[in-house]
Amino acid sequence: MALSNEKLIGKMAILGVLDESYLSEIKKQGWKYCVGKAGSMDSQKVVAAIETAAKNEKVIQSGIYRETHSLYHAIMEAFHGVTRGQVQLGTVLRTVGLRFIVVRGNPYEKKEEGDWIAVALYGTIGAPVKGLEHEAIGLGINHI
Prior knowledge:
single chain, alpha+beta, Hut operon positive regulatory protein HutP, four-stranded antiparallel beta sheet, globular, activator, Regulatory_HutP
C-alpha cells in the first residue's frame, strides 16, 4: 500500500490552491477537482460553499452518503488548520476570505486502494476589520 510519489494528493491540493497554473498537473492524473472562493464570519457558509461546488462540479456524487461524509471530514480537517484548531468564526469575532480546492483521486500505486479526497484552503483570517487579518492555510485528506 505505498503512496506514489507522483500522486501525492495533499501536495497537489496545496499547490493547486496556491497557484492555478498547477491545475494542469492535477488534470494529468485524470483526477476530478473544483476550485472556488468563500468568505464569511459563519463557518457553516464556508462549508456549504465548498460542498456545493464539489457536488455541482461532480467531484462527489450528491446522492451517495459516504462521499458527502468523506468531503465533510476533509473540509473540517482543513478548517482546523486555518482556524488553529478552534473552528469558530463570528462567535469569536473573526472572519475568513478563502480560496479552496477539492481534489479527488487515488494517490496509491494500487488501483484497489480506491479514491481519496483532499481539501486545501488558503486565504486570510482575522478580525472583521479590513487590514486586521493574516494569511492561513489548511489541508484535509480523507478516504472515500
